[in-house]
């Protein structure tokens, strides 16, 4: 019987899942994911996790809980660095320890480090460690790693082509997904924020879906090449410490340069440490670089945020953008 | 003469005042933080920035209004946000229309060359030679060390004082004496004088105070206004406190070297990764306090402080495993004195009862023959 390893549908799921799925599958390991976020998952997580944690971290605890009785082990890689320029937020660094200290009766947690700060090899050292841990040959691990890379590259391509992460993953699984359509002449809105926050339909209150229903063309940071995002984020006198934060800021500068945006929305979690900096820099720089011409809205979300409140704010923002266009 | 200022952190302002003045600048010494300082910081800071950020921003606004032209501050390596605060403060202040010069010194370990270049620019502005500068730094360092030493001494004497509040009063007069001392010789004399003053406080040596360790984020630990004078409050409740961080020790181990390795090593079974700030230290120091027979540990964390949130979610496990009670206090601009004091009283009560129970049990074990 194949080994079952749990992979929570949260945090790095939206950025790296295709790699790990292909890698483990090639080794003959079955990956079990938690269902998409529901109220129950969020409530469970919020009850167990430390109260000061941000909503994505609480949610992660909830996803681990749904998996714990279904699998022989849970994969919680310790995300330290994926390149030499930035680390992950301290909560990612401490994630396996937080989960282990907080939740009782868990199956073993595989918490190998992902630290690609020194070499060019990305996930390979982690994959080699996994193969040693699970008893596979290096040769098999290498081909699994290659396969993971292959899938991740295909995923990246779909994202750059404008597919949203869940659609892109569905397409990779072979489902027929319509190519993303853009309405010429419609409003163009950049929706920026951490992928685990923007694309989790439950905690983001389906912000992207709502905007699409309003006939808005949505642009996100995954639609720009990460190398470009990193290059742009180095405009700051001191680059931010955190991986995703640099991507968000890079995307801000990218869409500012693009010049065809009608507005920028920043999606952030209540109490998010890095975003306290990111949001302020976005506010100041968008005003400065667009000479006050580009509207910016910041939407902060926690487990108390109501659907109606978000809808009203989005409608008001979009209305305002329509009016500005009419006035020009 | 250029007017230079810096952030207020505990009693270190006396050392920095001397440093800046000896370099030939005019020091704009920041006043002790007050609710008004905090209000100002809160107005212009991002909402989710931690309270040290807001407080330091408020302090800068105050010194800039008093005419400061240059601010000297520290940077950092991350992943704790504090390393970016200099840059953020500068942006916010410039956006408010202030024209200031800000020197952000990242730890020399992250880059000796940028550190050297910045320092050379400051020295040029001061018109000071490198040799003279070494002497200036030596004296400031001696003063900072003395401040830390006396603060520790006062903390260890306070729970025994016969007249409540006398230690704190004596310590305040010591600060004045220290402020007067400038040369190495004067500082040494001030040390003797202040030690005498503190040692002469009438005490009841028969008391058996509880021992509580204090861990957490450096700014809320060092700035008494921030932590609502937790050491004084606990001391006057009859508790000996031991704080895990003092500025000179921190500078020696974490800024100029690669961190208190052994404390972080201790944390490994629970937190096997440096998470920035003092997150890993908080876990390691708690374990150390438990091993050294302390009665309890208090963790002080600013609201939204990321490394301390990681530690906070792990500490309950440490508490269970090692049998040491831990109280986590989260501090933000809403934190009120009465609330904190109530929680401290409840915690101290709990520790007392726990000690009595444990002693009753061990006495029973000692007297089997009766």
Automatic annotation (TrEMBL), chain A:
InterPro entries xrefs: CoA_activase_DUF2229, Dehydratase_Activator_Redct
Top-rank lineage group of the source organism: Bacteria
Domain (DUF2229) ranges: 5-224
PANTHER family linked: BIFUNCTIONAL PROTEIN [INCLUDES 2-HYDROXYACYL-COA DEHYDRATASE (N-TER) AND ITS ACTIVATOR DOMAIN (C_TERM), BIFUNCTIONAL PROTEIN [INCLUDES 2-HYDROXYACYL-COA DEHYDRATASE (N-TER) AND ITS ACTIVATOR DOMAIN (C_TERM)-RELATED
Full protein name: DUF2229 domain-containing protein
Organism of provenance: Neomoorella glycerini
Automatic annotation (TrEMBL), chain B:
Gene3D superfamilies: 3.40.50.11900
InterPro entries reported for this sequence: Dehydratase_Activator_Redct, FldB/FldC_alpha/beta
Pfam families: HGD-D (PF06050)
Origin: domain of life: Bacteria
PANTHER family in alphabetical order: BIFUNCTIONAL PROTEIN [INCLUDES 2-HYDROXYACYL-COA DEHYDRATASE (N-TER) AND ITS ACTIVATOR DOMAIN (C_TERM), BIFUNCTIONAL PROTEIN [INCLUDES 2-HYDROXYACYL-COA DEHYDRATASE (N-TER) AND ITS ACTIVATOR DOMAIN (C_TERM)-RELATED
The name this protein goes by in its record: DUF2229 domain-containing protein
Organism listed in the record: Neomoorella glycerini
């Amino acid at each position: 019987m194949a080994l079952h390893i749990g992979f929570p549908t949260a945090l790095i799921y939206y950025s790296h899942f295709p790699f790990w799925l292909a890698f483990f599958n090639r080794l003959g390991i079955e990956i079990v994911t938690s269902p998409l976020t529901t109220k129950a998952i969020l409530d469970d997580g919020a009850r167990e996790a430390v109260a000061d944690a941000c909503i994505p971290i609480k949610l992660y605890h909830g996803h681990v809980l749904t998996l714990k009785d279904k699998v022989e082990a849970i994969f919680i890689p310790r995300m330290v660095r994926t390149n030499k320029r930035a680390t992950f937020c301290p909560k990612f660094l401490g994630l396996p320890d937080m989960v282990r200290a907080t939740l009782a009766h868990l199956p073993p947690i595989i918490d190998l480090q992902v630290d690609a700060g020194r070499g060019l090899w990305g996930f390979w050292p982690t994959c080699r460690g996994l193969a040693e841990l699970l008893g596979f040959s290096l040769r098999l691990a290498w081909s699994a790693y290659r396969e993971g890379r292959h899938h991740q590259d295909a995923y990246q391509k779909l994202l750059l082509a404008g597919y949203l992460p869940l659609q892109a993953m569905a397409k990779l699984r072979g489902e027929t997904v319509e190519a993303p359509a853009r309405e010429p002449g419609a409003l163009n809105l950049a929706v920026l924020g951490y992928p685990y926050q923007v694309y989790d339909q439950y905690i983001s209150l389906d912000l992207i879906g709502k905007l699409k229903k309003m006939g808005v063309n949505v642009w996100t940071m995954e639609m720009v090449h990460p190398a470009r995002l990193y290059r742009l984020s180095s405009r700051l006198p001191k680059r931010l410490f955190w991986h995703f934060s640099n991507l968000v800021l890079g995307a801000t500068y990218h869409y500012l340069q693009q010049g065809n945006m009608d507005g920028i929305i920043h999606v952030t979690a209540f109490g998010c440490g890095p975003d306290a900096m990111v949001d302020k820099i976005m506010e100041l720089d968008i005003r400065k670089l667009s000479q006050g011409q580009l509207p910016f809205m910041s939407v902060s979300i926690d487990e108390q945020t109501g659907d109606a409140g978000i809808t009203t704010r989005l409608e008001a923002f979009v209305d305002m953008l329509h009016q500005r266009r009419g006035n020009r | 003469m250029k007017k230079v200022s810096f952030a207020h952190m505990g009693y270190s302002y006396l050392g920095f005042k001397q440093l800046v003045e000896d370099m030939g600048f005019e020091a704009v010494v920041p006043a002790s933080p007050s609710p008004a300082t905090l209000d100002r910081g809160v107005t212009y800071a991002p909402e989710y920035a931690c309270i040290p950020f807001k407080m330091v921003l408020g302090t800068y606004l105050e010194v800039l209004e008093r005419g400061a032209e240059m601010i000297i501050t520290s940077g950092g390596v991350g992943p704790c946000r504090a390393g970016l605060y200099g840059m953020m403060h500068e942006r916010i202040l410039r956006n408010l229309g202030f024209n200031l010069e800000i020197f952000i010194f990242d730890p020399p370990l992250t880059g000796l060359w940028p550190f050297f270049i910045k320092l050379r620019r400051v020295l040029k502005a001061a018109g000071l030679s490198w040799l003279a500068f070494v002497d200036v730094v030596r004296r400031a360092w001696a003063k900072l060390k003395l401040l830390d030493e006396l603060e520790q001494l006062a903390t260890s004497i306070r729970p025994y004082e016969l007249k409540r509040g006398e230690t704190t009063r004596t310590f305040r007069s010591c600060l004045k004496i220290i402020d007067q001392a400038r040369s190495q010789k004067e500082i040494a004399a001030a040390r003797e004088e202040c030690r005498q003053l503190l040692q002469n406080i009438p005490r009841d040596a028969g008391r058996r105070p509880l021992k509580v360790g204090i861990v957490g984020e450096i700014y809320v630990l060092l700035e008494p206004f921030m932590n609502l004078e937790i050491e004084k409050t606990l001391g006057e409740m009859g508790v000996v406190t031991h704080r895990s961080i003092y500025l000179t020790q921190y500078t020696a181990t974490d800024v100029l070297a690669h961190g208190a390795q052994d404390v972080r090593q201790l944390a490994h079974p629970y937190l096997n990764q440096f998470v920035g700030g003092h997150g890993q230290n908080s876990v390691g120091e708690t374990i150390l306090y438990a091993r050294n027979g302390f009665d309890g540990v208090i963790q002080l964390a600013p609201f939204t402080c990321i490394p301390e949130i990681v530690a906070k979610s792990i500490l309950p496990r440490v508490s269970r495993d090692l049998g040491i009670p831990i109280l986590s206090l989260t501090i933000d601009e809403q934190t009120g004195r009465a609330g904190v004091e109530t929680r401290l009283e409840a915690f101290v009560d709990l520790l007392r009862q726990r000690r009595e129970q444990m002693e009753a049990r061990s006495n029973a074990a000692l007297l089997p023959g009766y």
